[in-house]
């Protein structure tokens, strides 16, 4: 199979779909890899590094899309990239379709086969291709939030850890999953007062044990949200419903009760955001202020630490990329129900139910489309 990797074009996105190590593995399995020139520069990998691993270099994204049987990316295809996809071509990348009707329509019109990293599952019901970026984003959320608390950024001027004689800042983490756990780890490690809200008592018990009583665990209700939001300095939105749009947990009314100069970091913004006032921002212009509250809603947070992120992502995606290449996408999906969960769009059909429900589109069972297409 010829696998193509275009250079990412989203604002300040420096990650790359395949590292030289991944390219070498694919070549060793009998495949061809075509990289767009400069695709790896954001992680410090030159075209020479890729040719040494066995890849060919294309001058343009158009050439990559035209020649490759499967496109491997990091971020969702931008409109110009969607228009380069062709019928039957496999796209393997993050998609986050639920809050993005335009991308969904363009993928349907392309007649391509779009497999989303973020809905591939594992045997325990986890999301193995989302997890490494959730770890990065969770950790980054605290350093981003701490910076936003600085007075020059519109914040209250509080140091997250405080100093002897001055209390540390209050940090509220909504959601105790991968993002939330990593945010808690960073915030607690810096000495902040940390509270986590979650609807799973089992998960709250696990977090209490993991952090040895250094954090407060609270069962999440509307009343609990209202109480804690009003008394916090930094809120991390870390709620995820796989494939679906994020629930709006903090309303505009709740926002008005927050302290002047407090900060919201919405890590769920890829799925539409979990604050009513959230809107996607970029690394170039990461924040805005509503009701004197700083909002940080960058939709590709891990792109800022591309070297760490790209390698972590490749470690997770490579086995699936190899399966798709070695077996062909149809056989790979038939053999692995976890990978099948990643199929979001197949020749115009929406094959992920949360995506279909979020966009009010018809849902088609992914197994049935494979059977129909084979026939």
- Count of helix runs: 15
Q: Pairing-aware structural class of the strands and helices?
A: alpha/beta
Counted up, domains total 2
Strand order of the largest sheet: 3-2-1-4-5-6-14-15
Task: Tell me the span between the first and last alpha carbons.
Answer: 22 Å
The fourth-level CATH homologous superfamily of the largest domain is: NAD(P)-binding Rossmann-like Domain
Radius of gyration computed on alpha carbons: 21 Å
CATH architecture annotation of the largest domain: 3-Layer(aba) Sandwich
CATH class call of the largest domain: Alpha Beta
Shape designation = globular
Average pLDDT, rounded to a whole number, is 95
Can you describe this structure?
The structure is a single chain. The protein is 37% helix and 16% strand. With 375 residues, it is α/β, with parallel strands linked by helices. It folds into two domains: 2-119 and 306-374, 3-Layer(aba) Sandwich (Rossmann fold); 131-299, Rossmann fold. The strands form two sheets. Strands 3-2-1-4-5-6-14-15 form an eight-stranded mixed beta sheet, with helices on both faces. A seven-stranded mixed beta sheet has the order 9-8-7-10-11-13-12, with helices on both faces. Helix 1 (20-28) packs parallel to helix 2 (47-53), helix 6 packs across helix 7 and helix 11 packs across helix 12. The two termini are 22 Å apart. The mean pLDDT is 95.
